[in-house]
Amino acid sequence: MTSAQIRPGLFITVEGVEGVGKTTNMAFIREWLERAGVELVCTREPGGTPLAEELRALLLANRAEPVDPCAELLMIFAARAQHLSQVIEPALARGAWVLCDRFTDATFAYQGGGRKLPAAVIETLESLVQGGRQPDRTFYLDLDVETGLARARKRGDADRFEREAREFFEAVRQAYWQRVQANPARFTVIDAGVSLVEVQAAIAAGLEDLFAQIKGEGQ
Ligand code: TMP
């Protein structure tokens, strides 16, 4: 195949509040796509490049100094700009698929819902950093906050976000639902409160649906 014939890859993201089982289900999606023969780049936000991972460590570290919500937002988009230009865009351009643990929906949820920054401010940075780039499909794992936090806190040392109060995560979850409602075609909502077998069957059905959609578009 010549480079002119290469079809750009798809950009898939996974979202959800703490403790929804993102890590386990990211691994499941990865294996499923690799079995289907997709060339896949797995990555995460904030992070995904050495510089962006340094910014991640700064963002997650517990510190005595309060972190200004706007400073937090700018660091997240700084990491995202680096990640997009170094990893995501080059991979998609060569026809690989990108599977990313969180992306800008998390910013609308955490910095918008949680920190109460106006959506218009986030949209301005989104447009500056991403241009028109949006995920092609987003798996949103939904779970009640109490169950999620109990699971996340069992893992030990809580980072700066995990130490937030329950109300913060209720606002995060509500903001995720607003994103789902505003972009119903992009989101596949997965109930993460059922057994792992059921969660993964729902994810597999979402992936089948995505493949059927691509096949339909290719005809
Ligand atoms: P993780 O726990 O999924 O690895 O994500 C790290 C934390 O970063 C998580 O608590 C959510 C937070 N976060 C934001 O606040 N805004 C963002 O845009 C992203 C990508 C993550």
Give a summary of the structure in a few sentences.
With 219 residues, the chain is α/β, with parallel strands linked by helices. The chain has helices spanning 22-35, 50-60, 69-93, 104-114, 119-130, 145-154, 166-182, 196-218, and strands at 11-15, 40-44, 97-101, 137-142, 187-191. Residues 18, 22, 45-46, 76, 101-102, 106-107, 110-111, 161 line the site of thymidine-5'-phosphate.
Secondary-structure map:
Elements: E1 11-15, H1 22-35, E2 40-44, H2 50-60, H3 69-93, E3 97-101, H4 104-114, H5 119-130, E4 137-142, H6 145-154, H7 166-182, E5 187-191, H8 196-218
Parallel strand pairs: 1-3, 1-4, 2-3, 4-5
Residues 18, 22, 45-46, 76, 101-102, 106-107, 110-111, 161 line the site of thymidine-5'-phosphate.
How would you sum up this structure, described in words?
By secondary structure, the protein is of the alpha/beta class. Helix content is 56%, strand content 12%. The chain is built from eight helices and five strands, in the order βαβααβααβααβα. The protein has helices at 22-35, 50-60, 69-93, 104-114, 119-130, 145-154, 166-182, 196-218; strands spanning 11-15, 40-44, 97-101, 137-142, 187-191. A five-stranded parallel β-sheet has the order 2-3-1-4-5, sandwiched between helices. The radius of gyration is 17 Å and the shape is globular. It binds thymidine-5'-phosphate. Thymidine-5'-phosphate binds at residues 18, 22, 45-46, 76, 101-102, 106-107, 110-111, 161. Residues 18, 22, 45-46, 76, 101-102, 106-107, 110-111, 161 line the site of thymidine-5'-phosphate (TMP).
